[in-house]
Amino acid sequence: MKWIAAAPLAALLVLLPSLAGDFYVNLASQILIAAIFALSLNLLVGYGGMTSLGHASYLGVAAYISALLTSRYGFGHGPAAIISIAGTTAMAAFFGVIALRATGLGFLMITLALSQVLWGLAYRMSGVTNGDNGIAGLTRPMPFGISLESAASFYWFALIVASFAFLMKAIFVSSSFGSSLKGVRDQPRRMAALGFNPWMIRWLTFIYAGFWGGVSGLLYVYYNKYIHPTSLSITSSAEALLGVIAGGTGTLGGPVVGAALVLLLKNYVSAYIERWNMLLGLVFLFIVLVMPTGIVPGMRRLATALRRGSR
Amino acid sequence: MTPLTSDYALEVVNLKKAFGGLTVTHNISLAIKPGERRLLIGPNGAGKTTLFNQISGDLRPNAGAIRLFGTDVTFFTPYRRAHFGLSRTYQIITLFAGDTLEHNVTLGLLGLRPSRWQMWRPLSHYSDLATEARRTLDAVGLLHLAEHPVSDIAYGEKRRVELAMALAQKPRVLLLDEPLAGLSNTERSQVKSLIASIPRQTTVIMIEHDMDTALDLAETVTLLNYGRVIVDGERDAVIADERTREVYLGA
User: Fold this and answer.
1) In Å, how far is B49's CA from the nearest CA of chain A?
2) Cβ distance B72 to B13 under 8 Å?
3) Per residue in A21-66, pLDDT tens?
4) Most confident segment among A70-74, A179-183, B231-235
5) What are the residue boundaries of the structural domains of chain B, listed by start?
6) pLDDT category, B5, cuts 50, 70, 90?
7) CB of A70 within 8 A of CB of A226?
8) CATH for B1-85+172-184+201-251?
């Protein structure tokens, strides 16, 4: 039943470039990238109970490493991608050790502080990062010799990566480790008494989330062909967190819907209203008031209620 | 670590714990033999649960030692103690409310298995875990509720899930913190026979206030008051002791 409903959606996603113009195809690519990013953040926030306000670090650092290696040091896209992901994952391992000294609000503040340090470096270390000018003139990779310059080809590339990311995360949360993680989120003391190592479980999740944050960062820099310190800013982290919460934490669909919502408001509505941030705030307020657990769980509840009512 | 084989399943030696100026564990020493059924009694605030929390590793004592089968585990983390064969239940029900009974017990099984680290295989593919979880639920008489979330079941049933989670681990030493609290008479006798059926490979240490039931299960009794051991020994001797009457059973 679930798969029958998913088939038209899958067809729509694959055929989108032949149905819509470049503007929408590019918007869809951005949504896919934001969705991978939000899904990785949701591993921490939703499944791990670790609310991070510094997740943009992984997106930004992966993007910067790739940008620097390809534009300045003459690396090919393949090795640059590998080094960038490996470096970002290693950074997540290091940041995790620091941030996981605390839980709850303390954890949030440490993640925020660490990401602010990186943001500051990106701004001030202009000899390396080009500071406020950002790094421009980047290229997109050509996997198997296929050019990703057109809107459609990049979209399909992003779709493949996003589908894989979604699948991997779906498997992750239903795995034994995923159950361990949710258990540690709900009853850490009990989990320890049962033989689970709560710290290690949180740390590995933190690293895994950092890895996928890095993957989204690569796609981000490929798409924009440009990188600027704002991608490391608190706004970037907060937008993703907002998307995850609005869509529904601890669900697989929630972050995707939330990321889409934020990007649609940002790109589409901002053409009509200058202060799109205000609108985002209002929409967020509406969601929190009407569907406190997020759009996806809220809609699910609504659907069940309607089904019952029609009987 | 002293890998000496010991005559005792659990030894507590001169254990001391203070919260600020308040000493809650005052040089407590206990020696419990493998397979023994020990009952811990004492008035409210005697330090029974605090003692349990130190044995399980949730609290770190200020001084003294805890040994499991001769190994000093005083500085072991709680999860390492679990792998060493220690299980416990909680006085305040500590379950995974949104998950099914089967999943709760499965977590108990998973905690001791290497597969708990597996990230790329769905938990539902481990049919041996599900089978084992259901067998344990059957043993506590809750198999018919296996698919229900814990939040849907009655209090007495939750108490039995607490027990099932610990029993599924086949512990060498089992700490039961008021397993009968808040149960009806029927439930009490159910849980009582459940505890009585725990195999002798498991040493059981139980905190319980329901003397009628608990004394039937116990072989030895320790009476605590204000963080000290007052009387310690064979059940009948402790019950007959004048100090027990004075401190606990009341005149």
Assistant:
1) 15
2) no
3) 888 999 999 999 999 999 999 999 999 999 999 999 999 999 999 9
4) A179-183
5) 1-85+172-184+201-251, 92-170
6) low
7) no
8) 3.40.50.300
CA distance linking residue A303 with residue A309, whole number of Å: 10
Element (H, E) at A194: none
Rounded Cα–Cα distance for residues B70 and B27 (Å)? 19
Report how many helices (DSSP H) and strands (DSSP E) chain A contains, helices first.
14, 0
Amino acid at B58: D
Q: What's chain B's average pLDDT?
A: 91
Q: Which residues of A touch B115 (CB under 8 A)?
A: 176
CA distance A84 to chain B (A): 23
pLDDT at B8: 93
Structure tokens at A246: 């609005």
Q: In what order do the strands lie in the sheet with B86-88?
A: B86-88, B173-177, B203-207, B37-41, B220-225, B228-234
Element (H, E) at B28: strand B22-32
Query: Is B172 in a helix, a strand, or coil?
Result: coil
CB within 8 Å of A67: residues ≥ 6 apart: A135, A138, A221, A227
Domain range holding A240? 2-310
Q: How many domains, in total, are found in chain A?
A: 1
Number of C-beta neighbours around residue B95 at 10 A: 22
Q: Read off the pLDDT of residues B137-155 as tens digits, 9 standing for 90 and up.
A: 999 999 999 999 999 999 9
Reply yes or no on whether the pLDDT at A2 is more than 80.
no
What are the chain B neighbours of A180 within 8 Å (beta carbons)?
A: 107, 110, 116-117
- Torsion angle, CA of A46/A47/A49/A55, rounded to 10 degrees? -60
Regarding pTM above 0.80, the answer is yes
Q: What residue type is B60 in one-letter code?
A: R
Is the pLDDT confidence value at A279 over 90?
A: no
Give the ipTM of the model, two decimals please: 0.90
A203 near B CB under 8 A: no
Q: A176 vs B103: CB contact, 8 Å cut-off?
A: no
